[in-house]
Amino acid sequence: MVDHASGIPAYRQVAADLRDQITRGDLPPGARIPSEHQLAERHHVSRPTVREAIALLRAEGLVVAERGRGVFVRSQRTVQRLARNRLSRAARQRDEGAFKGDAAAGGWTPSTTVKVYFESADPATATLLDVDEGTEVCVRDRVMRADGIPVQLATSRLPRDITRDTAIEQTDTGPGGLYARLEDAEHTLDHFVETVSARMATHVEQAALQLPEGTPVIALTRVAYDTDGRALEVNAITMSADRYELVYELPAD
Amino acid sequence: MVDHASGIPAYRQVAADLRDQITRGDLPPGARIPSEHQLAERHHVSRPTVREAIALLRAEGLVVAERGRGVFVRSQRTVQRLARNRLSRAARQRDEGAFKGDAAAGGWTPSTTVKVYFESADPATATLLDVDEGTEVCVRDRVMRADGIPVQLATSRLPRDITRDTAIEQTDTGPGGLYARLEDAEHTLDHFVETVSARMATHVEQAALQLPEGTPVIALTRVAYDTDGRALEVNAITMSADRYELVYELPAD
DNA sequence: CGCGTCAACTTGTAAGGACAAGCATGACAA
DNA sequence: TTGTCATGCTTGTCCTTACAAGTTGACGCG
After folding, report:
1. Which of A168, B77, B102, B113 is at 20 to 30 A from A109, Cα to Cα?
2. Is the same domain home to A231 and A114?
3. What residues of chain B lie within 8 A of the CB of A188, using their CB?
4. How much helix, strand and coil, in percent to the nearest 5, is found in chain A?
5. Residues of the domain holding B225
């Protein structure tokens, strides 16, 4: 019931009530919350007020609405963790790149669509790859899926003088993936630098990753360096924050 | 102007129009967008419709509303990056913990408030620390500020049998911080495991970090292990995604 | 018994009105 | 000149009403 004397807006009180029920477990993941009409009657407020309350919970990512069906408690993070210690040479010899390795560990079926094209380096890419602006780069644009649903977008850029006449310019890079081909071409990988940030999904990403509104994404930029300290590849990865968790292991010294 | 024949809801058309103006730069960061009344008149829609459009942009984190003043375009990310390779023994000997080190590198003034208390381990903590549920743990609850504004929340938990009679149970842990005291007590640190995820801020975090609505946070869980493979500390860190970027360096092999 | 249709739900979109509360500005008084 | 206050602008909150569009299940007909 809404307390008008408290000074707290009615829609926030309704939202808080539902949030409590969800976090307490009275409304478990997947459960349908009462309809807008029912909530309005129960709390003695109007439907727009109830809708505002539900809009809050949607923005928090707690619930999803489905027209004609109801509003449902969001199921928990699909604990599809991604161990990033998979970039080792040994792993490359076992399977085909990190994504397939994660899939095997997580027990889901991976699929990928790839587009390969060429462009001249924009300022940001040029800085990261340490090449002149306008240098020709090979772009590998990938959409990765787990059991058919898109979970990750990745765009790799490499200087064309490295990729020319290699399988990297093919859609299928072959066993071990892109990094294996780099090592075939005598570019010995030394280390990677990953930069992790989070932000709200753009509407393009929302569409591509089939995200409900109000979900954040993890944006990861990985730069691969060879033993000479030269940057070989810049990979911009976007993941639904809902579905991913990144794990890093760091030595104490 | 709204096109009723397009099938696209009016509030989305209004939102798209404003979004374009913002991304194009016509409405630069800090600028005030037209008032709800003006937008309603201009697009020939009602005020509630305009409000719904603005609610969308707020959820996307593009604008912030200030009652009595107007709605303003959000200013850009403050590129305060945080290199996470600072957990080395050498760094501990130089300064006092990772946060002060980051501050020195970033050129801002750090300040911290600490609360220390004891509790019995909840299931999640017990699992991570590999102790029995209910074991007494020492909790260090910290709010970290950069130039006075809160940027990070961190809660460390350690089994009490490790912290008893050490400076870890004091608010001020002394030079080199918590990890230096652990090594003083013959617990040699071996490695850390960091788990990174992103999600929308809870309303508690929103208040503590003074975040506008609709901003995501980066949630990081760090577990410190000693050379025997024993978990010494679990640190749950929450950062505004606006203000942080994490950098990891990984060896290729 | 099977299947299609329809009614009764659900959420989505939109209008219009009313009052509250915070802020800035300018007029006015000291 | 300076401080105070009233006024009008802004967003915040909330109501009532109406119709659109998607889903589900029950009912009746073949």
Report:
1. A168
2. yes
3. 252
4. 35, 35, 30
5. 82-247
